[in-house]
Write a structure and sequence with these properties.
α3 crosses α6 (172-189), α3 (95-120) packs parallel to α7 and α3 packs across α13 (326-336). This protein has three domains: 10-84, Glutaredoxin; 95-121 and 161-345, no CATH class; 123-160, no CATH class. The strands form two sheets. It has a four-stranded mixed beta sheet with strand order 2-1-3-4, with helices on one face. A two-stranded antiparallel ribbon has the order 5-6. It has helices at 19-30, 74-84, 95-120, 124-133, 144-160, 172-189, 203-218, 220-229, 231-240, 262-273, 275-288, 308-323, 326-336, and strands spanning 10-14, 35-39, 57-61, 67-71, 293-297, 300-304. The protein has 13 helices and six strands. The longest helix is centred in the first third of the chain and has 26 residues, at 95-120. The protein binds glutathione. Glutathione binds at residues 18-20, 54-55, 73-75, 109, 309.
C-alpha cells in the first residue's frame, strides 16, 4: 500500500540481477522521470500482478493509494514513456535512424539475452553466485535455512529453463562466439563514440546495457572475458547505469544516418548472422506449429523451442519498417544492405 498519497511518481518493480529491470531503471534515470524503485516481491512491493508475471513492472499511481495502470515488457514501456514525457528522448529524431535503433534494441533484448542467461546458468561460479544473491532481493533477513532452500530452488528452476532460451551444449559455441563478437565490436566502437548513435544514448544503448550489466559487472565468467577483451565496454556499462548527469541539448547529438560509425555496420552484421536467422525460423515454427526452431547460424545448426514473444517482436519490427515513408525506407535499406538484416523484410 502506498501510504503517501501525494507521491505520484511512477513505480518500477524489478530485481538487481534482471537485465530488463536494469534497462528500464537506466532509462528512467537518464530521462529524469520521477520514479520509485521497488524490489519485486520484497515487503515494499505493493504492485498489482500484471497479466504476464515478468519483471520489470511499471505502475502508475492513482493518487488514492493504489495504481491506475500497470504494464510489462521493456520496449513498449519505453515507447509509452516517450508519449508521456517530454525531453531527453531516447528516440532519434530522424525516423530512419530511429528504425535502425529499434532494430538493434531488439537484437540486444532477444538475442544477446541468450548469452546472458547462458553464462549465468551454465558455469559453476556464476550459478553459485546467482543462486546465493537472487533470493536476497526479496528478503535481506532470510533465515539461513530458507536461504539454502531458495538457493537450491532457484538454481534448479533456472537451469531447467536453459533450453527454453537456447542455452544447450550444442548451441554453446554459437552463443559464446556471438558474445565475444559483441565485445570486440563495442571495444572498437567506444574508441570512437560514447554511444551507438552519437553523443547521446538511444534505445539500443539501454537494451545493450541491460544485457551487458549482468555479464560485464555481475556474472564472474563473462565479466572476466570482458575485462580482458573490452575494458571500454565495462566502463561504458558503469556509465549507462545512471546517465542523469549527462547534459543534453534539445534534439542535438544524434549521428546523421549517412555518417554512422563503421562499427554500427558490424553490429548490424552480427545481428544479421545470428538474430535474423533465428527470428525468421522462430516465426516460421510458430506459423507451422513445429515443435522446434532449427536454423543455420554461421554454418552450425542452432535449435530451441519456438518463442511466442519473439514472434510478436518480429511483427513490431516489420510494422515499424513498413510504416516508414518510401524515402526513409530507402535510406534504411542502404544501411542494412549486405548485413543480413534486410532478410527480415524480404
Ligand atoms: N520481454 C520482457 C522480458 C522480461 C523478462 O523476461 N524478465 C525476466 C527476468 S529479467 C522475468 O521476469 N522472468 C520471470 C521469471 O524468471 O520467473 C521485457 O522486454 O522486459
Amino acid at each position: 500500500m502506498n501510504n503517501d498519497l501525494t507521491d505520484d511518481r511512477l513505480v518500477i518493480g524489478g530485481g538487481f540481477a534482471s537485465p530488463y529491470s536494469m534497462k528500464m531503471r537506466a532509462v528512467l534515470r537518464y530521462r529524469h522521470i520521477p520514479h520509485r524503485w521497488v524490489l519485486r516481491n520484497s515487503r515494499w512491493d505493493d504492485l498489482p500482478t500484471p497479466p504476464v508475471p515478468v519483471i520489470p513492472v511499471l505502475a502508475w499511481p492513482d493518487g488514492a493509494g493504489g495504481y491506475r495502470d500497470v504494464m510489462v515488457d521493456s520496449s513498449p514501456q519505453i515507447t509509452r514513456l516517450e508519449d508521456e514525457y517530454q525531453g531527453r528522448s531516447v528516440v532519434p529524431t530522424d525516423p530512419a535512424l530511429a528504425f535502425i535503433d529499434f532494430l538493434l534494441e531488439d537484437f540486444a533484448d532477444e538475442w544477446v539475452t541468450k548469452a546472458m542467461y547462458h553464462y549465468r546458468w551454465t558455469y559453476d561460479p556464476d550459478i553459485e553466485k546467482a543462486g546465493l544473491l537472487l533470493p536476497l532481493d526479496q528478503n535481506l533477513q532470510l533465515s539461513d535455512d530458507d536461504h539454502v532452500s531458495a538457493h537450491d530452488f532457484i538454481i534448479q528452476r533456472q537451469i531447467s529453463r536453459r533450453a527454453l532460451v537456447g542455452s544447450t551444449d550444442a548451441n554453446t559455441p554459437i552463443l559464446e562466439t556471438s558474445y565475444r563478437n559483441v565485445l570486440n565490436i563495442m571495444q572498437a566502437h567506444l574508441a570512437q563514440r560514447d554511444f551507438f548513435f552519437g553523443d547521446r544514448p538511444g534505445r539500443t544503448d539501454f537494451a545493450m546495457y541491460g544485457q551487458l550489466k549482468p555479464m560485464l559487472w555481475w556474472d564472474p565468467t563473462p565479466a572476466a572475458l570482458a575485462v580482458e577483451r573490452a575494458p571500454r565496454a565495462v566502463n561504458w556499462t558503469e556509465r549507462i547505469d545512471d546517465l542523469s548527469w549527462l547534459p543534453i541539448v534539445d534534439d542535438d547529438g544524434w549521428s546523421p544516418l549517412d555518417d554512422l560509425e563503421e562499427t554500427v555496420g558490424h553490429l548490424l552484421a552480427e545481428a544479421g548472422q545470428t538474430y535474423v536467422p533465428f527470428m525468421l525460423a522462430n516465426d516460421e515454427a510458430l506459423r507451422s506449429g513445429a515443435e522446434e526452431v532449427v536454423c543455420e547460424i554461421r554454418g552450425n545448426s542452432y535449435r530451441q523451442g519456438p518463442f511466442k514473444y519473439q514472434g510478436k517482436c518480429l511483427t513490431w519490427i516489420r510494422e515499424s519498417y513498413f510504416a516508414l515513408s518510401a524515402d526513409d525506407r530507402g535510406r534504411v535499406d542502404s544501411v542494412l544492405k549486405g548485413t543480413g538484416c534486410e532478410s527480415l523484410f524480404a
